[in-house]
């Protein structure tokens, strides 16, 4: 017979059995090992580690640490272009031929030196594979048919690029500083090539770069392990970097406080507030090249009136929204070039002014107000921001019908131009003013079957004059004049456009005390691990 | 996918839940059924064969229905599937080319027909999110879920069943009330609260359990993947410290899931047992002087085994489907996470593929429960 006691014992033993064995003698959760740095981060956005294919945040960041580009920009002074693999470069008189001379010294993780042949191969590879980020390089007129002539290694350390049209040097150089400009080791990649895949199948999971680190292992939605490149010209102190996929921010915080992670990358605003002022942690932030804005569809007769657009811009309480809802993770920003990018404009001409906004509506003959549909992403904090926008606009008589949806559903709607007002985000594709200028300020064909469907097109905003000015700014070869053109363009854009640019993303990372030197930039491929040290 | 709602009938695909529901109904306690079986033995064998072949025949129909519904939902979602693949920035040529490549310009029924053809040839398409074939992704994410679910169900059964029996034999006592309260807690506390509390207690405060993840940093990147079941892989590699580490990491998420499942299992066991203990044969056995242990374990338990098997099979199926929140909190790269992330990215190939796999699991476990039911009930043999 089974007594009460034996039953208790049996069930107790069963419950403990799987736990009892490992509890005996395993090392208790402690500090991460010396020489090893552990990031806690959401990394399920990684699709591929191939720098000529990857366009996602985490993969771009990894590419920035595993590969080197011809040129780069230091985070301390983002508008200054520095050679990374290139020692110097020359531009021909017609601004069409660019000759780069490589540094003597950079070596791949295999120990082989980086040659002009590797650089030419890498850029050619990006052009011919023509994956997502390829347009950044292809916009200079390269395609699979002409790339052989236009990108050539003319010596072991000399590379010549020929663009189709005369090109602003800063534009080309900024584009080459993107992750898609990464240089891979030709021999290593081609040894693994299958068919005509240019080694893409292999490079998705592995690396062949000259950066500070090399990829040891990537497990999707689990972890990435990097190891220091022993031949790198800038030897990092941390020998091994482990990036763990910790989806839940609370779990990231817990692990950080327990010393299991050195740097947590996706903490929420509340958690960050909790750690600020605690000497055991360092909260570090960087402006991200991503803006949040309202798109006012010009197909809507009311929104097409300039006074209405202006009234909406004056009705919003930018400061209040930022302070109350997203104090640590967003900053007020009102122009299309985010702070941190060359040519950015950080003025805030719009402040809440309900009286003036109402007067403008009355002038437009809409004193009684009107109703509009409002599409926004239902996730936090967007839903809170959307409610604040609704309340602000209600005060001037504009009644918003709230239409929350999944982020991509909102984007799908703006692409079909069936929204009235939509709240969306836009991240810059590459580190040059043109990335955003093209999106926000070019639309010369407003027909439904237009080829170039920019954000301006999605707002049905036909702007031949501003488009011409945007193109002129792109072509300006003098860097200082180019910046001035973008600033002027943004000032006019701010006043006229159907875009109410509200906020800019701030990326936050929190490190344990003693962990120093994680360098964060405005773009993900500018986050550098090279100088990280651990006490 | 549902979150850890292993046992609600709604969690099962429509076709799959039918046998589950019918099994307890065909509970062997009905004496007339037994007599009928005994009377016509040869035709019973034929009937059994028929029933079995009917169940097997329902598999493709169930899967077809599942594929159809998931496919339609995927097409009704207000997200452009091309957007999911080429991204928001792709030029018009690429968008149009992709639309043609995907066959999205064709009528829905032709698209579905093509997809069915693909499935039959074992091709679930390519995931947008990971750029791998969906079959490869599932082969990578499913073992993690299998490992977690299997350990959880073993613990849940070993604890839940005796607990339920114990409570039933002492109906109304403080023990019974205690077990019921315990089960209520396990059943009504959301699993993410349980997970976070568990992390806070065992990991953060007591420091006896490791944090989220499948292995410690020391072992990261050290073990070759063979089966994808880490505890097994570490054993195959002969790395005992790594095995202990993997097991140690497994204990907490499996414990949380087990608590959640055992609450249900114990409740069901208690209910089945209570009904059984009220039957006449139990009174007879008692009158004949049989010990309580023999009555409970030798007689009553054998009779509740059949409906219990169905409960366990469905609980296990629910766990295998992937416990999204548990997997998220414990950073466990399993099927639930894969399915959720795919869904949020409108990665329809991955969603369809993973849904079909989940459906297959349900159907397979139902079949298994059916077979076990025949094995456990001597009157049907």
Automatic annotation (TrEMBL), chain A:
GO terms for biological process: peptide transport. The keyword Signal applies. Belongs to the bacterial solute-binding protein 5 family. It is found in: Periplasm. Keywords: Signal. The keyword Signal applies. This is Peptide ABC transporter substrate-binding protein.
